[in-house]
Give the backbone structure.
Amino acid sequence: MSVVVEVAGLEVPGRHGVLKEERGREQPFVYDLELELAEPAADRIEETVDYREVAELVREVSESRQLRLLESLAAAVADALLEHFPVQRVRVRVRKPQVRLAVPVGHTAATVERLRP
């Protein structure tokens, strides 16, 4: 049996974007995460993922890189989550709320899903 842990609306600043000016200033990125793992046998944090550690890992990935594409950012976070936590599947959606286009837009987003081999 498995359980899906969700962390939604995690806002982490970053310097990501196609344009040099986007990478030159911090802007918010909003993450929606799904982590599928074995259902804990007991009511103990040691048997699941700690949301604080998940949030810290996303922050570390965002701070350590300047990526051009949301797709690349979502993939980097997904890969890090698989590497650091005992999860079977991760789904990472990254939204960029302050995107500037020629027409109004609420946000842009990219979603990546990874399975443990």
User: Anything to note?
Assistant: Residues 82 and 90 are 7 Å apart (CA to CA). The beta strands are 2-14, 27-38, 89-96, 108-115. The mean pLDDT is 94. The chain has one domain: 2-115.
